[in-house]
Write a structure and sequence with these properties.
Blueprint (H helix, E strand, L loop, with lengths): L1 H19 L4 H8 L8 H21 L20 H17 L3 H8 L4 H22 L3
Helix pairs in contact: 1-5, 2-4, 5-6
């Protein structure tokens, strides 16, 4: 049942990204171009996401355990450290250069568009590189 709920959640997210046009890198790049041909549609998508998520999160926090799981999966690390800032910076630079972030890129790669597929392959390579780097003792 958990796998089915996860699949349905991912499918709903993918449909939302596609319908809102967030799988089109030009939309993202035009949103970031505040001095040029600015497109505010990403802002409205984000506002809609926050308006949907905030009440659901509030209701969820009141529960002892999730409906389709044994425990809530909450990250243990909460510190704002150099690793977090570097990762956020790399994410932002990559997003600004490519117009993709992971979710929309995976959805867009489903169309087999070469740019989307290349981005997802590079993202997977970066994830593997991080696994190798993290294996080294600090």
């Amino acid at each position: 049942m958990t796998l089915f709920v996860a699949f349905c959640s991912g499918l709903l997210f993918a449909i939302g990204l596609a319908v809102s046009g967030m799988t089109e890198p030009a939309r993202i790049l035009n949103f970031l171009d505040v001095a040029g041909d600015w497109d505010p549609s990403l802002m409205f998508v984000m506002l809609g996401a926050v308006a949907t998520f905030a009440p659901a999160y509030w209701l969820t926090k009141r529960r002892e355990r999730p409906k389709f799981g044994a425990t809530f999966q909450v990250p243990a690390r909460r510190a704002i450290d150099a690793r977090l800032l570097l990762g956020a910076g790399l994410f932002g630079v990559g997003w600004g250069l490519a117009g993709f972030c992971p979710g929309p890129a995976v959805v867009s790669a489903g169309t087999l568009a070469p740019r989307s597929v290349a981005f997802v392959l590079a993202m997977l390579a970066g994830m593997q590189l991080l696994r190798w780097v993290d294996r080294e003792p600090r």
